[in-house]
Amino acid sequence: FYNGGQFIGTSMAISVPHVTPGSFLTLHYRLAGPGGDIINTFADKPATLSLGTGELAAPLERRLLGLAEGTRSVFDVPAGEAFGERNPELLQRVKRSLLAELGDPDRQYNLGDVVQFPTPDGLASYAGVVRELGADWLLFDFNHPLAGRPVTFEVQLIGVL
Predict the structure, then answer these.
(1) pLDDT of residue 2
(2) What is the pTM for the complete model shown?
């Protein structure tokens, strides 16, 4: 306390929240691979997420644990750690007839196209990238685009609940 030029009394420590499992976060973050930014919220509104719900890859979440609100950090994540190693079994040929059944029968596919496929229960979807075009099939890569690659994860923690 301040009284006429003197400080009187004791100081009070202010507790700053830290990230723990299950924390609800408001943050800016940037995820970049060798080819540049994949996601970057620093120029836009911040993101909100809850740790442990799968909104962020588990290896990235682990880097947030223990950080204090207000922290800004950059993490260099080694190849394969953030999104796993590339799995050759996730390269799969899909018949054009099946693609016609699942979607637009007149759609033309090109190398690099990202195609959404429904899960067997129909409640969600997953994506594959067209890697080869055959006469009656397409080769899709269902690996995460950053699988087997190093990533940079930058974060600024705005709020921790």
Answers:
(1) 46
(2) 0.75
